[in-house]
Structure of UDP-glucose 4-epimerase:
Amino acid sequence: MARVFVTGGAGYIGSHAVKLLGEKGFEVAVFDNLSTGNSSSVLYGMLIKGDILDYETLKKAMMDFKPDAVMHFAAKIIVPESVEKPLLYYENNTAGAINVLKAMRETGVKNFIFSSTAAVYGQPEKMPIKEDFPLSPINPYGRSKAFVETILKDLSFAGDFSYVSLRYFNVAGADPEGKIGETKKDATHLITMCVRTACGKRDKLFVFGTDYPTKDGTCIRDYIHVMDLAEAHIKALDYLLEGGKSEILNCGYGRGFSVLEVVNEAKKVTGIDFPVEYRERRPGDPARLVADAEKIKRVLNWVPKYDDLSFIIKTAFEWEKKLGSQS
Ligand SMILES: NC(=O)c1ccc[n+]([C@@H]2O[C@H](COP(=O)([O-])OP(=O)(O)OC[C@H]3O[C@@H](n4cnc5c(N)ncnc54)[C@H](O)[C@@H]3O)[C@@H](O)[C@H]2O)c1
Ligand SMILES: O=c1ccn([C@@H]2O[C@H](COP(=O)(O)OP(=O)(O)O[C@H]3O[C@H](CO)[C@@H](O)[C@H](O)[C@H]3O)[C@@H](O)[C@H]2O)c(=O)[nH]1
């Protein structure tokens, strides 16, 4: 069975991918500095505690493991923080990715799966967003990822290297078996905030902005279940191992929900009419981000299983209850 080196595999999305890799029999090594990840989220394979910015340790770990492919999740992910501390993001996300790519070259690994983001598109006028739309990120986080995509294109052109760049839209939910989920205390994502408020871990939910040019004035997003996204990684891995050419693919369902629709659904699913307060817009939020999800279905034959907002919220809620006071 193929061997997969997973950076950031102790984090929210990486740990779900590792669970699926393990269940499917892949050999896994997780390389993570545990800055936001959790060792208890790594259900399969070995966990190497290390930082991708420490090139020698990274290279040794990769050389020892001899992977067939690398999945690269490790990154800093908070947009407002990236505006305040851009160097932190260019260092961790861009220079960090270069270290991973250099270690791959030294080890002779040719297959790479990259965690990209819808943030590389900025605020496109047309919806849904296709992969060939121009890259126009509006914050350092998005730019730190867009730079990596440019590097990947050049590497692939130079030969002997193939990649799949997965541009995630809004990732949410938790493992339906309830073994793992989001653990970060300072998580900011809408569905996590809704279920934490429903559990009484937060006093109220803030809705940021009610004057957007959308049907109810709140922002629209394409929410994808984290396990469907994990499955997209397995499909991308199989595709590369079978010799597929480099591709850039959106990861979403191709439909959007407004913030108010999510909040109402969360109240219904949890059965709790939690308090909501309307606030000013959050800086940098685009009004609408919805993926055109046709390409990933065509190229990878990806068939999502959990395209259901109520199920996404339900799995997040079950996980939050299980976490108890830890979040
Ligand atoms: N969560 C989303 O909605 C979303 C959307 C688009 C893209 N992404 C991308 O998905 C990836 C995973 O995001 P997540 O939500 O699971 O975040 P996360 O913070 O839960 O996971 C990131 C993991 O990387 C590790 N890490 C960070 N810097 C590291 C370093 N220098 N060396 C080693 N390990 C390091 C952390 O400890 C953590 O385990 C990121 O690349 C992120 O940019 C996430
Ligand atoms: O407590 C909250 C949290 C969020 N929101 C709103 O909910 C929407 C979604 O916000 P959030 O869940 O924080 O996700 P995004 O800011 O859309 O960003 C996520 O989704 C993007 C893709 O769509 C990715 O690029 C990013 O990496 C990822 O963090 C936005 O309109 C927010 O203003 C609230 O109103 N209240």
